[in-house]
Amino acid sequence: MILRDLLYALYARRLRRQLAGAAVPGHVALVMDGNRRWAREMGFENPSVGHRYGAEHVEKVLEWCAEAGIRRVTIFVASIDNLHKRGSDEVRFLMEMVERVIAERLANNAGRWQVHLAGDLDELPDSTAHALKIARDTTAERDTDSHLTIAVGYDGREEITEALRSLLDAEAHAGRTLADLAQTLTSADISAHLYTKGQPDPDLVIRTSGERRMSGFLLWQAAYSELYFCDVYWPGFRHVDFLRALRSYDARHRRFGG
């Protein structure tokens, strides 16, 4: 154990040296996948316990982001599909973790992060939506340049649909016709009605658990993001795994679709 810890520390130090002067993503988005599979591997009788360890791990990863100079983070907590298709007991436990571990700690902690929300809060239990709104409102006036967006009750296609609906409604109230809008519509017009309006797109998206797909996460915003897929489950996502993701990002030449 002591030898393994020593080797880990040496490897982490080597990664940090490699990243000295490296290009750091300004905005990292995290798909925190694999909580239940991690719990099964760890021998827990109830795999939903993994959601508690996953929620608690958010604080540690935010510390790593802050240390690396990353000022914007988006975390994908639960999709609309998760809420509809998972068992009621699992969803209830996950929502309790969102309330008690993520929302409450962020609201009560005089830390660096200002909280933003992305998703349809009407899809959540009232207590969860209330806790998230308190975290958002409590941190709104923090004197900080660090921003955390919590994506919960989220679906990228629904977000785009809602953005278009909101845009059409606004244009109609302004007295413009569909023909008028068709002549002038730009991607910026749609972006202005997304859940994440006013926020920069992610530079790097990290997904844990070994899955190689986006699962509807930030479909519009991540069009030109660098993607990094990590084979470890979210609660087991280590500092060296995070540093490897940053090293991979630095090694790529971003072409933004070119």
Could you explain how this protein is built, in words?
The protein is of the alpha/beta class. The protein has a domain at 24-155 and 201-248: Undecaprenyl pyrophosphate synthetase. Helices cover 50% and strands 14% of the residues. It contains ten helices and six strands; from the N terminus they run αβααβααβαβαααββα. A six-stranded parallel sheet has the order 3-4-2-1-5-6, sandwiched between helices. Helix 6 links the parallel strand 3 (113-118) and strand 4. Helix 2 packs across helix 3 (49-68). The longest helix is centred in the middle third of the chain and has 21 residues, at 88-108. It starts with a helix and ends in a 7-residue tail after the last helix. The mean pLDDT is 93. Mg(2+) binds at residues 33, 226. Pfam families: Prenyltransf (PF01255). Homodimer.
Secondary-structure blueprint of this entry?
Layout: H1 2-18, E1 27-31, H2 35-41, H3 49-68, E2 72-79, H4 80-85, H5 88-108, E3 113-118, H6 126-139, E4 146-154, H7 156-173, H8 178-184, H9 187-191, E5 204-207, E6 226-229, H10 239-251
Parallel strand pairs: 1-2, 1-5, 2-4, 3-4, 5-6
Helix pairs in contact: 1-10, 2-3, 3-5, 5-6
